[in-house]
Predict the 3D structure of the following.
Amino acid sequence: MKILYFAWVREKTGKAQEEVSIPESVNTVTALADWLTNRDEKFAEVFEQRSAVRVAVNQEYVSFDHAVSDNDEIAFFPPVTGG
Amino acid sequence: MIRVQEEDFDLGLELSRLTEGNHTIGGLCSFVGLVRDMAGDEEISAMTLEHYPGMTETALAEIEAQALERWSLDATLIIHRYGRLQPGEQIVLVAAASAHRDVAFDACHFLIDWLKTKAPFWKLEDTPGGGSWVDAKESDNSAATRWDQPTTLIDDDNGVAG
């Protein structure tokens, strides 16, 4: 699974992207966020306020209950501020 | 047409290209977003725009497709820049051309409202206190929700163009 991080999420996690192998039990965005937080405490600060984080699966906005699988591209980022 | 680019754009050139050769167009409406030198009472010395390559293009294409579905448009254009920009520089251009002005105004307004809440860009402002990520504004969300209901196509064939 490829995971990308943008804006302050990227700064807090200290990485722009990574490849991870997730266990089968990690099958939703919420489960992935929990798994990432358990793996690295830097993610706790990102996910402590989940309403402040947006997620895309395969470049489409989804909610945290959306399914994820090992072939997906996931991205975590703040609400967008372009224009 | 959509473009995501680091370099600046020539507004006049872009708009003339957009309508070139199409004489059914009676109205062209454009919006250009610029970098301000103040945010609240804080001075901004520069702004860096980050984006999500790939998803950005998809999101902008979907926004444009939605405008073309809702209104009778002859041409649309979205250009959005990324990278480091100075105050006064152009960030974004949206434009919509149609036979009549009402459609062009509405579609242009729609394009920028939806872009602001749906296109994956993030602004980092350089302030005297360091870099500061711009927070999403509730007013931008409410501006976008006014377009939640698909607009009835305006069938206005009685006025002069423009």
